[in-house]
Amino acid sequence: MKSQRYLTTDVAIAGAGPVGSFLACLLGSAGLRVRVFEQREKPPDRSMAIGIMPVSLRRFAAIGLDARIIREGTAVQCAVVHDAKRELGRLSFATLPGPHDYIVTLPQSTLVSILWQRLRALPNVTFATGMRVEKIDQSSSETVADICPARGGHCEKIRCGFFAVCDGAHGSLRGLLGVDTPVKPYGMSFVMGDAGDETGWGNVAHLFFTPGGSLESFPLPSGRRRWVALADSDDRTETTGAQLCRRVRKIAAVRLREADLLDSSRFTPQRRLVRRYVKGRIALCGDAAHVMSPIGGQGMNTGLADAWHFAAVLVAATGQLNGYERLLAGFERDRRLAFRHAARRAACSMWIGTRRGRGASGLRSWIVRGALSFPAATERLAALFSMWTIPEGTDPVLHALQKRLIAPGPPAPDQY
Ligand SMILES: Cc1cc2nc3c(=O)[nH]c(=O)nc-3n(C[C@H](O)[C@H](O)[C@H](O)COP(=O)(O)OP(=O)(O)OC[C@H]3O[C@@H](n4cnc5c(N)ncnc54)[C@H](O)[C@@H]3O)c2cc1C
């Protein structure tokens, strides 16, 4: 009988969105052998996430990409908050503990392209595009996955020490692992689009909370601006772009032409948390594990933090198949806690962004105005919304390992 030939690696990763790519860069930079499988041939062209929080910038420094991300992005130091009649106050990030006292906006598609470039330059990372992970099995000592060309063809098997599932919100692997849970939609939609910026607002974000609905506007690199409005109808005869332009004109008195939109889409915020992040030596990171409302801009950043924690666990655990369970149990506990904090903030942003009508909107204006008129409260809000106060985890071993990620040690022993 012909014996099956296996590909081998220390760590295999399914999915090279921002989270899987970042994890691979961290592990590759720390000397582990990594194989990444991505079903797409090219980075996505839809922009989706734009906000990169200071805590994520600090983590990108571990792979030497912070300076490039800051250079290619736009540093946003202040958000001006309005209601229908007046300015309610300003949320400044200048009070954040340095060095990054701002949030960087950079389209997710650009971030993924930067990470893919880095992946391809790391000698111990093998990056295969156009390849889907179809199945994962594990025994007490190894994990084996089936890897197949996304367009059909001959499948291969890979044997690895650890497996990271980073296949995103629509991925199928958490279902195959039996840890999936149903998504809970918020029951309301937003329209969103990017366009050339003719507002003259510079690098300042503007948030409008009016009785007729909310509108958020963020500066982007290359002279562009992102607009996100609470959708006000499900009228399918009006295109998403037309509705967005109408909402922007009505709420912010800015003329946006549908033809000028570079990208427009409609999304319905959802929430989900898997039953377990960890199953044996397989862990889920990013949207594969959790989804929260994009309002508040925390989903990708929470996923990047998952990758950061899982990388620290793997740097310690690869090459020693005993003793990793405690680290993975800590990862499960810490990431659940971080999700709860981030999801509460996303829910709070949803509450603020979805009040309609005079009464509810008046109450919101009163709360927001009150909070932004006290410097201590503004400082606290800036720390909250920039994710400074999301718990990092309590395990001292993990913290020591995260420091080692910043200053990589020698390559791990060649075990697989
Ligand atoms: C409109 C919108 C705006 C957002 N804005 C923000 C924001 O400002 N800030 C923020 O932090 N977050 C934001 N988010 C959330 C953010 O986009 C997600 O959290 C982020 O994409 C998660 O990254 P990921 O790598 O986990 O998953 P994904 O980006 O979904 O990547 C998963 C990858 O896995 C691949 N894949 C899937 N299945 C397989 C398989 N079986 N084998 C191989 N490859 C596979 C996919 O092709 C994909 O490339 C926003 C989301 C939306 C929808």
Describe the structure.
This protein is of the alpha+beta class and 416 residues long. The chain has two domains: 6-50 and 107-184 and 271-354 and 390-406, FAD/NAD(P)-binding domain (3-Layer(bba) Sandwich); 75-105 and 189-267 and 360-385, 2-Layer Sandwich (D-Amino Acid Oxidase, Chain A, domain 2). 35% of the residues lie in helices and 27% in strands. It has eleven helices and 21 strands. It has helices at residues 18-29, 54-60, 66-72, 108-121, 173-176, 240-252, 299-317, 324-354, 358-372, 375-385, 396-406; strands at residues 6-14, 34-38, 51-52, 74-76, 78-82, 87-92, 103-105, 125-129, 131-138, 143-149, 156-165, 184-185, 190-196, 205-210, 213-220, 224-230, 261-267, 270-273, 278-279, 282-284, 290-291. Strands 1, 2, 8, 9, 10, 11, 19 and 20 form an eight-stranded mixed beta sheet that branches. The chain is globular. The chain starts with 5 loop residues before the first strand and ends in a 10-residue tail after the last helix. The model is unreliable at 408-416 (pLDDT under 50). Flavin-adenine dinucleotide is lined by residues 14-20, 37-40, 48-51, 108, 132-133, 166-169, 171, 173, 192, 267, 286-288, 294, 297-301, 303. Residues 14-20, 37-40, 48-51, 108, 132-133, 166-169, 171, 173, 192, 267, 286-288, 294, 297-301, 303 line the site of flavin-adenine dinucleotide.
